[in-house]
Amino acid sequence: MRKNYIFAYLTFAVVLALVAYFTMDTTEQAPVESEEQLTVNWSYEGENGPAQWVNVNADYEACGKGELQSPINIEISNTAKEELDEQIKLNYEEALFEIENNGHTIEANSTTQDNSLMIDDEEYKLTGIHFHSPSEHQINGQYFDMEAHLFHESKDGELAIIGLFIESGKENKQLAEMWANMPKDGTEAVKVLKNPINLEQLLPEEKNVYQYVGSLTAPPCTEGVNWFVLEQPIEMSNEQINQFSSIFLQNNRPIQQLNNRDVFKIELD
């Protein structure tokens, strides 16, 4: 009787062990499949480069079929001369940022809410800055060394972006701490900058801008974005430019068709 009891107990234990093993194996393999699905992502080159963004994800349809895409080549002689009805005003001062390498660019997210762009009575809060090398927009068919994008968002989720050309010259003091802490890859933790950046001093003295309605320049290429591309570039040293391009050699989207859009030349207050 005792032997039968021991045999039954051992049999039951073996069955439990097998069930636990196969259950554990199944639950461990499921996330692997999800991770493999998530590895299909967009890029600036290769099989998932700009020409294929529309095919990478169903949410990226505008990247291939949109009519108001960015960036564009700005032909100065073709800019519209009419006055805009909107009143455009910058409210910029010092801002604190935390920076990260998101795999596509260096992104600086604002941790303060004191900077904004006013379009008529609508306030667009500054949310962050990121960078491209070389520039994404062109002026008369010419690229610049880099381009910064200053993102703003209204309470209704509408977007306004200031495009800031960067050319080789003097060291940029406003961006010095950001560059000194620049993450080399996406595995590095988010870094909090100790000192604020004076955004008013970051911008050029002359604030003539080219305004048009476009899109995000990266997936999902959302349209309806108010673009304000500053005509006068700011400067960065060769060392600063080379430091960025050593991480992101070419992270700019090709020029998109204008499709009869108006480009206005205005001055920011």
TrEMBL record:
PROSITE patterns: ALPHA_CA_1, ALPHA_CA_2. CDD domains: alpha_CA_prokaryotic_like. Its EC number is 4.2.1.1. It comes from the Bacteria. The keyword Membrane applies. It catalyses: hydrogencarbonate + H(+) = CO2 + H2O. Residues 40-267 form the Alpha-carbonic anhydrase domain. Pfam families: Carb_anhydrase. Keywords: Lyase, Membrane, Metal-binding, Transmembrane, Transmembrane helix, Zinc. Belongs to the alpha-carbonic anhydrase family. Reversible hydration of carbon dioxide. This is Carbonic anhydrase. It comes from Ureibacillus xyleni.
